[in-house]
Amino acid sequence: MYWGLDPLHRAYVKMFVRDVLEMDTYPGHPAMNVFAYRNHPVSRVDLLGWVVRVEEREKLFNYAIDDGTGVIGCTCWKPRVQSTTGEDSMDDTDYSTTGASTSADSAEKEFADFLALKRREIKKCVRQLKQPARLGDLLHVRGRIKLYRGRREVGAAYFRHVDDPTCSIEINRTMKQLQLYQDFYDVPFQRGNGDSGDCTGAGVVKSLQDAIADFLNTSSTVLNFEIKELATVDSLMAVVEKARKENESAMTAKQVNSLFTQAVGGLEDLGLVYKRTDKDNLYVVVDRDETLESNVLEIVRRESQNPKYSESGCHYRHVLDCLRTNPRFSGVGPNVVVHILDKLESQSDVISTSENYYIAF
């Protein structure tokens, strides 16, 4: 709802290719090609990878880059330079000053030399951009995520070849990315409540989210619920009433419903509940859905017999795709599947072969 306040919304996010390919479309966003990492809206990415495919066309280069986690296509447009004569004449202009004796003339000559240097650098950059990258080159790309013929790719607004013979640049970038994931990307975005009189601040939503989680944990008979039913629970309404008193403002039924919707959405992001279908308002408690757990386990067991997954295991996204073929689980999100798989692993029903890959015997 408040995606425009997320600092990642307009930023070039330094992500791994795997995450760019696996992100779901951001729900409710008015623009196309906006995707969700956790609950962050992402439309622009900053990638660094090795060129594994090169296709040159009249006005652009199509590259495929591999950063070790996946391969994605990048459309890189050639620079719009019409005349080579204009380029060659860049260095022919005489910017020097004659008879420079005063300090002002010296400063002017220094500035003219600086301009000449920058023009030579621009000319060199344009010349490099007009030449295709080669297989095995390290390419730095920034651009918007887009879909082309059903495939996700990056339309580059900026790209350049990176000279990194010792791979030190790539290693340092990977370390910084891991820190960014830990500090920012994997932390769910919550709207600040700096505005006075705001009854729907992030602090209130978080308190209500924790209260709902405690209620579901202690009420073992609750297998599923609707949001309007939560508003009848005294302990949960006490959190809402406390927020109303602190803000000293009235709260409409629409605001109360918005609070509960955001709080349940937070639990959904954590994989603790899921919405049964898009057209249904019924939410299911994940840990009490034995049918869901058994279906996930059966899918992993079945796919583990497939030679393609018999050694490396199958990715949780593949498990999710298989699960969603059942209409009953069409509303299950990726975090729910990860939660179930982690639970099955703790019970020794499945084994994690690597990050996000699972196998069962």
UniProtKB/TrEMBL annotation:
Keyword flag DNA-binding: yes
Extent of the signal sequence: none
One annotated Gene Ontology cellular component of this protein: CST complex
Start and end residues of each Stn1 C-terminal domain: 205-361
Any one GO BP annotation for this protein: telomere maintenance via telomere lengthening
Keywords of this entry: Chromosome, DNA-binding, Nucleus, Telomere
Cross-referenced Gene3D superfamilies: CST, Suppressor of Cdc13 homolog, complex subunit STN1, N-terminal domain, Nucleic acid-binding proteins, Winged helix-like DNA-binding domain superfamily/Winged helix DNA-binding domain
Molecular function per GO: telomeric DNA binding
Location relative to the cell: Chromosome, Telomere; Nucleus
InterPro entries from the UniProt entry: CST_STN1_C, CST_Stn1_wHTH1_sf, NA-bd_OB-fold, RFA2-like, WH-like_DNA-bd_sf, WH_DNA-bd_sf
Principal place of residence: nucleus
PANTHER family named among the record's database cross-references: CST COMPLEX SUBUNIT STN1, REPLICATION PROTEIN A-RELATED
Official protein name in the record: CST complex subunit STN1
Species per Swiss-Prot/TrEMBL record: Branchiostoma floridae (Florida lancelet)
